[in-house]
Amino acid sequence: MDPYHPLTFQRSIRGLVCMVVYLLTAFVFLVFLGTPAAVLPRFFSIHYSRKALSFVFGIWLSLWPFLFEKINRTKVVFSGETVPEKERVLLIANHKTEVDWMYLWDLALRKGTIGFIKYVLKSSLMKLPLFGWGFHILEFISVERKWEVDEGNMQKMLLTFTYHSDPLWLAVFPEGTDFTEEKCKKSQKFAAENGLPILKNVLLPKMKGFYACLEILKGSLDAVYDVTIAYKNRCPTFMDNVFGIEPSEVHVHVRRIPIDEIPGSQSECNAWLLRSFQLKDHLLSDFVTRGQFENQGTEQELSTIKCVLNCVFVLGTTGLFTYLTFFSYVWFKIYIGVTCAYLAFATTSGFRPSPVLEYVTKNYNGKKSF
Fold it and tell me: Dihedral (C-alpha) 327, 328, 331, 333: value to the nearest 10 degrees?
């Protein structure tokens, strides 16, 4: 099927400009605002560090729904249930393509939680220039997709997210990889050999990561959001999004499950997750037939005025710090060098500062017990 918008010269230039803007603003917000918010308050309080960091990056992340819905004019249609604002949730979604996770921002922005969203993602993404640094200080959970390696790392990170006072949207893609026809055939073969349901539009979910998240966080969560994402025409790539070629429409179906309705035992939880993916499979089959999910229009459109004002603020802040870097004191250049070195070290080593009081108390108790 032909793309929604042809890649014209004008659209190419606009896409390149958008890409430069996003890279430059990402660098400025990460180096000048994000790193101080992630490091300095953390010496006193992890809670307030996360609040400051979420505020800073919530402003920057809001640029993306603005690009999708206002500049590219992608129609984002929400259906299913209308979920409350500012809940602590574990979010599970299907993984049709490499950009699914970006459209979760459109929902999070409407719920006032875009700065609090975190992802479980493959560790190779942590090696991306610039963005890998951002993933680290935003405390995304990286996995090798080998449970004997990932189990301990996930538990260590998840235990830091158990405080109910810290807002959280933790997004998990239980399929573990994006959907392709080849992967689907392998998944179906495995299902047939093991007496599991044959799914056509999603892959069989991997159980252990989801259950680990649920087991550790259950006492501090309000609900699980079961999100199903579908696209009109073809599934978009990252560059399709940047240049505004695809998608013409993104459909997001949301099902809210109160946390006390999720089974507690691992076997029952695994069965629940499998049933949820069977439901996703049916929803996606219906979408292919009907071109939409049921109960559309559960969320209002974004405010153009708020999007524009946010964009102006981001561009103005970026312009100010860029000017100061090139035309002000040499200390700005030194600061950038030191900060980049810290981010490279912290991302590679997994280092995050601990509150001083916690460190002192831990050492004191250790000496006392000795």
Answer: -20
Q: Determine, yes or no, domain membership for 231.
A: yes
Alpha-carbon span 135 to 38, nearest angstrom: 12
pLDDT digits (tens, 9 = 90+) for 66-103: 999 999 889 999 999 999 998 999 999 999 998 999 99
Angle at 262 between CA 261 and CA 268, to 5 degrees: 125
Neighbours of 268 (CB within 10 A): 11
> Radius of gyration (Cα) for the chain, nearest Å?
22
Side-chain-side CA neighbours of 292 within 13 Å: the count stands at 10
Q: In what order do the strands lie in the sheet with 249-258?
A: 75-80, 249-258, 223-231, 89-93, 169-172, 117-122, 141-143
Q: Does residue 325 sit within a domain?
A: no
First and final CA of the chain: distance in angstroms?
Answer: 71
Measure CA 220 to chain center. 19
Distance CA 172, CA 154 (A): 12
**Closest Cα to residue 321, out of 311, 309, 331?**
331
Nearest to 231 by CA among 95, 338, 46, 83: 95
Average pLDDT in the 167-194 region? 94
Two tokens at 243? 């240049």
224 found inside a domain:
yes
Residues 12 and 24: their CA atoms lie apart, in Å, by: 18
Structure tokens at 99: 């950009």
Mean pLDDT score across all residues of the chain: 91
Give CA–CA dist 190/198, Å, rounded: 9
pLDDT value at residue 1 = 44
CATH number at residue 196: 3.40.1130
Q: Which residue has 């050999």 as its token pair?
A: 193
More confident residue, 366 or 170: 170
Kindly tell me if the per-residue pLDDT of 365 is higher than 70: no
Domains in the chain, number: 1
All residues at 6 or more sequence positions from 272 whose CB lies less than 8 Å from its CB, including other chains: 262, 263
Residue 156 included in any domain: yes
For the record, the structure tokens of 369 come out as 């017990």
Residue 210: which domain range? Answer: 74-304
* CA distance linking residue 169 with residue 104, whole number of Å: 10
